[in-house]
Design brief:
binds zinc ion, single chain, two-stranded antiparallel ribbon, 171 residues, two-stranded antiparallel sheet
Amino acid sequence: MPLILDETDVAILKSLLEDGRKSFRQISRDTGITTPTVKARYERLVNIGFIKGVLPVFDFEKVETQEKNFIQLRDIKDNTKIKQNIRKNPQESVIKKEINEIQKRISRGLAINMICDFCKGPVYGKPRILKFADIERFFCCTSCKSGYSEKFRGRIESIKRKYEGKSEMDE
Ligand SMILES: [Zn+2]
């Protein structure tokens, strides 16, 4: 059974597309969705692997490129061709176009396929969920869930301990 995006997920994702470093509280202010819901939804989208990461956006225009160095060293004659190439690839508009495309595709009802975190098979029914720290793992059946818990018991316990220590420090 895929995870179906609803209006809440869509609002959070669109808010994040404006700035991926926004805090849960900022997203909450933008969207009117409560901070705990924002956090839970965000974490779920990460945990099912739909949000794969939050990446910095670079302005390559500011980079001293080899081509630019080349221009400086070369005879003026050949400059125009190289400059055209640099102008043909304005990174910023490429990124804006990509974000626009993503914004169009992020919509309510988008179905995200889930795979079992233990057997790697598809999750057809309602997933069995194992929750520890801010991590959720999804399974096709109870035996995959318990298989996973047993196999990674040590790791799960240490993640839990670290997480609890961290949240104490935050308070
Ligand atoms: Zn499974």
